[in-house]
Design brief:
Layout (H helix, E strand, L loop, with lengths): L2 H9 L5 H15 L4 H17 L13 H27 L7 E7 L5 H13 L3 E7 L5 E7 L4 H22 L2 H6 L9
Antiparallel strand pairs: 1-3, 2-3
Helix pairs in contact: 2-3, 4-6, 5-6
């Protein structure tokens, strides 16, 4: 990339000063020492990265909804505790190997950012992991769910994923995304 191109990108407003500050802070943190040389090098690297690898502008927007975020965090912590207890119980059950299933769940959101947040939350949860994401209309998540060995437990795992995605959309989705999001079959949890 030439210096002219970098100036043109900067003039068009594609390089965010906030992003440059953030990337510079990460650069300094990675080096572990706050020096003038590290800060200046970090600024150069941040500007180059911002110019060479611009962020997409349309599909990456988040809206922070305080009530939705508080609800998401509270429910997520509760889900973490319950799933940890379930996995511990299955691991300690004498003489019985836990069974599992791969469950396909259609995603209601079209936002890559909201889908990523949902997948991250699912992967942190003990007893579940996203093993495949099939892009398309609709996007389908395939989750390996520990303990889902009956039709009722498979349906419960599917409902849990849909409720988690609905809470992510309620906490971080724009008004349009919240309107597109699927109705919560779990009764609003």
């Amino acid at each position: 990339m030439t210096a002219t191109r970098i100036r043109a990108v900067s003039r068009r407003g594609r390089i965010s000063p906030l992003l440059v500050v953030w990337l510079t802070a990460v650069w300094v943190a990675l080096w572990g020492t706050l020096t003038v040389a590290n800060v200046l090098t970090g600024i150069v690297v941040a500007v180059l990265l911002s110019g060479l690898l611009p962020l997409s502008s349309g599909r990456g927007r988040l809206a922070f909804r305080p009530w939705g975020l508080a609800r998401f965090v509270a429910m997520f912590v509760g889900d973490l505790v319950m799933s940890s207890l379930r996995v511990a119980w299955q691991a300690l059950w004498p003489g019985r190997l836990p069974r599992s299933s791969v469950v396909g769940v259609e995603s209601a959101t079209r936002s890559d950012v909201l889908l990523t947040l949902t997948v991250l939350a699912l992967n942190v949860m003990p007893g579940s992991i996203v093993i495949e994401i099939r892009q398309g209309r609709p996007t389908t998540l395939f989750i390996h769910a520990l303990g889902a060995d009956t039709p009722a437990s498979v349906a419960a795992a599917r409902r849990a994923v849909v409720r988690l995605e609905a809470r992510v959309v309620a906490a971080f989705g724009t008004r349009a995304e919240r309107g597109v999001s699927a109705a919560d079959p779990g009764g609003g949890s």
